[in-house]
Amino acid sequence: MADEQETFLSHLVELRDRLIRILIAVGIVFVPLAFYARELYSLLAAPLLATLPAGGQMIATDVVGVFLVPMKVALTVAFLAVLPYVLSQIWAFVAPGLYAHEKKLAIPLLVASVLLFFIGMSFAYFAFFPMVFGFMSKFAPEGVAWMTDIEKYFSFVLTMFMAFGITFEVPVIVIVLVKIGVVDVVKLREWRPYVIVGAFVVGAVFTPPDVISQFMMAVPLWLLYELGIVLASIIVRPTPEAVGVSDYQPPSDDEMNRELDRAEQQSRDQKI
After folding, report:
1. If I label 113, which of 65, 226, 237, 257 is the partner at 20 to 30 A Cα–Cα?
2. What's the pLDDT at 227?
3. Cβ-based burial of 118 (10 A; exposed 0-12, middle 13-18, buried ≥19)
4. Closest of 213, 205, 201 to residue 136, by C-alpha
């Protein structure tokens, strides 16, 4: 009992140390980025500013918003910059409890999840935002000045980054579910119609209430689901039991003769 408690405390100490390292890494990157917080926010707001009418601008309704919002942007960029280091710390904490074959699969999935998350954010920034903001600017009624608060814009952009980042994680999620045996590839193919409907529901919930936004989230989600099925069928090979194939092999002639001789000997011994 004492050994188990000591082991548990040592894990807590290790977890605390790694969390401290993560905070220090974020702080080290954040300090220089804080000096460029205004430029970072301008870069973040570029898709919206490019669609505003001539003379259009953003506004700040909070007294300290012009300071806090750019700092939040700088902190977010700092965290994203050290995200690979954060995941490496999490991996170093979890890896000792995994088997060798689990580590072999986890490392490429971890790398792929980071890349897919950044690809999802890039898709939102370069494709989704210009399309949506352009549509909204043209849809604004005559005589209405479309001016967005910088705090609300940051919240909207951050939500969309998270939504598209997680959406692009679908292939990794599918592979993990198949690998741990929760579902199989055949079942995933059967769920395809429900996934398509669910993709449009997710798009309707997380995106602005227009058809273009919903399609720009639902279609990639569905295509990434199909990609996950293809990759899962390649990476996760079905076991003989899963495909109904038995590994039973009939005994050879020599083995049959030995078993018959043994049975006859036991029968004679019982008669004696």
Report:
1. 237
2. 93
3. middle
4. 213
Identify the residue with better confidence: 27 or 261.
Answer: 27
Asked if residue 72 lies in contact with residue 37, where contact means CB atoms within 8 angstroms, the answer is no
Q: Which of 44-53, 133-142, 191-200 has the lowest mean pLDDT?
A: 133-142
pLDDT category, 156, cuts 50, 70, 90? Answer: very high
Which residue's entry shows tokens 């926010």?
Answer: 41
What is the three-class DSSP state of 59? strand
Q: Are 76 and 165 in contact (CB under 8 A)?
A: no
Helix/strand/coil for 149:
strand
Residue 173 DSSP one-character state: H
Cα dist from 51 to 137, 138, 272, whole Å? 7, 9, 103
